Amino acid sequence: MFGRRARVGVVSLLVVVGVVASDLALMPAASAEAPKQVQLEVSAEAPTLDVKAGRKADPSRLAGLSSRVSIPSATPVPVGVEGPTPGTEQPEGWVAPGVRGYEEGRSGEDVKKTSATERVWENPDGTSTLELSSRPVRFRDRAGRWQDFDTDLVAVKGGGFQAKALPEGSNVAAAADAEAVVSAGTEAGIVSLAQPGAEAAQGRVDASGETVTFPDAIDGDSDLVVGLLPNGFETSVVVPDGAPQRASFEQVLTVPAGLVARNGSVGVEFVAVDGTVVGSYGSGVAWDAGLVEDEVEVRTSLVSQEGTEATVRVSVDPVWLAAPERVFPVTIDPVLSFSQNTGASGAMDTYVQSNIVNTPQSTATELKLGKAYGTSYIRRTLMKFDVSSLVGAGRVVTSANLSVANTYSPSCTGRAITVASLSGSFNASTL
User: Fold this and answer.
1) Which of 214, 284, 311, 332 is a good FRET partner for 1, with 20 to 30 A between their CA atoms?
2) How far apart are CA 263 and CA 135, in angstroms?
């Protein structure tokens, strides 16, 4: 989320090759004495979230994924066993006896097997090391080469901004009143957004390098903040007070010819001629500027569509916005996300939060877990990796390591995090 505290960033699974659990949930683990650093531990005995495909999560079930989770100690693997005992934990970097796995300078990458979510190395001992991501982390450039996404923005000659490494057509305009203040190159084509009535405020790259702010661009006192994503863009409107007119505003999205906009589970969906949902504008959250951030879901709804232009209304609960305890400014933050043809069979991630029940967070730019600082909100992260390439006769997983980048925590005291296998699959777009 732009301008706020991100919780969990890049997620990847490193496997030395067999089938491994591909549907996971992250939650805090209780400990009588907090560990010195954040750890990721796998617990087969941890409670699971009973998720049914296509069904919204019941927030009351989140209590079943509480912090009262006992983590069993790591179980040693007997010598001679080819792989780990199913459901047991091993120290970081563990591999089965007799297996060396990846060796720096000796293992060779098989570039023919590279995809948007996967990289493969062939190791000297005959094993293969696979790096799997729950979301696309790279794309093919015009020359057909794989490039890692880099959403940092730089000014371009002639005005405006573009990301260091994103598909063609992704850029930000120099001024907020442009016909396309932000555009994203997607597999469906270029999608852009205009802010009706915006003033000609000039944009500036923020300290993070990932967003451009157009100060006082809306109504002379509200900032417009935009940034590019690997599969779309994110917009934020920062309002200075809780006046009733602040609770909703309209934006215009220009989409490729042939796409039809409609209201859906995430917000506004974009549907191709074959009926496939290829994108959405929603999964929004609004938050205030208090020391203890208060959050509420953002709604997006279709107003009208004429040709390739779809007018969308973005709104938050006016009662929440005008509440006496609200600390301003408040940031209202929907996300545009379009599908990417990754070749992965269902790789995805999302999070659920006990006070957000109507807006799935499948396109959110961060993953959250634990209890929100100073609030009663409970959050759980869910991830699914495409492990189809691990399936094969005689293949055994000899090591698996989950990597999660923790980019923010309200406390410097380390705490363990439990990873639990889910009892069923889930649909991130409807959860």
Assistant:
1) 311
2) 25
